Amino acid sequence: MTSRITRGVLVAMSVALTTPASADEGQWTPDQIPELGLPQKGLAVPLESLYRPDDQGLLAAIVNYDGCSASFVSPDGLVITNHHCAYDDLHDNATPEHDYVKDGFLARRRDEELRTPGRLLVLEEVRDVSGEMRAVVEAEADDRARHRALEQKDKALVAACEAEPGHRCQVASFYAGSVYRLFRYLELRDVRIVYAPPAAIGEYGGEID
């Protein structure tokens, strides 16, 4: 278990340190990957292996942990994230005898893992709902009514999406409201801490992120 965690951390660090600088700044949605010219910048894997609408490709390994980015690094569900993202969970599990924030933590067996109240959101589907959202706007005459109609349609789409147990959904707007997408996530609530480095390592140099 320890070796798998270590490899995951090292891979994450090497990717962050060796990614070439790019003038294409900002945030990009997965379907925009072909526009980034990644093969010309040295990408050695096929573009379609990064993201496919049907099964999402490699990007399916990227997850959301209580607002923090994280990623799967093993077929057993092992996930890595930034040290500060688990700070509250470590603090809540600490005891007078075991200061997990200061000294770190390692579960040598699965029954030693620390339970947390956190949740993982795994992206399952991205659906374009621009037509549905724009239709309610065009049906209203004034700005206040349009805003109210958008809110109501947003809630209706999310409610229908979340009718399937174990899922969370959200509608996001892009390009000043000209594009709307519905994101559906699988929600995983059984989240446990396997390993955390001591604070001296996790906050090395005063940089927590």
Task: Give a written overview of the molecule.
It is a single chain. By secondary structure, the protein is α+β, with helices and mostly antiparallel strands. It is built from 7 helices and 10 strands. It folds into 2 domains: 2-121 and 188-206, no CATH class; 123-187, no CATH class. The protein has helices at residues 2-18, 47-50, 87-93, 100-103, 130-138, 143-161, 199-202; strands spanning 62-65, 68-72, 79-81, 105-106, 114-116, 120-128, 167-174, 179-188, 191-193, 195-196. Residues 1-23 have low confidence and may be disordered.
List the helices and strands and how they pair.
Blueprint (H helix, E strand, L loop, with lengths): L1 H17 L28 H4 L11 E4 L2 E5 L6 E3 L5 H7 L6 H4 L1 E2 L7 E3 L3 E9 L1 H9 L4 H19 L5 E8 L4 E10 L2 E3 L1 E2 L2 H4 L7
Antiparallel strand pairs: 1-2, 1-6, 2-3, 4-10, 5-9, 6-8, 7-8
Helix pairs in contact: 5-6
Q: Give the total of beta strands.
A: 10
What overall geometry do the principal axes of the alpha carbons give? globular
Poorly predicted runs are 1-23
Radius of gyration: 21 Å
Overall pLDDT: 83
The portion of residues assigned to helices is 25-40%
Provide a compact summary of the structure.
This protein is an alpha+beta fold. The protein has helices at residues 2-18, 47-50, 87-93, 100-103, 130-138, 143-161, 199-202, and strands at 62-65, 68-72, 79-81, 105-106, 114-116, 120-128, 167-174, 179-188, 191-193, 195-196. Mean pLDDT is 83; it is low at 1-23.
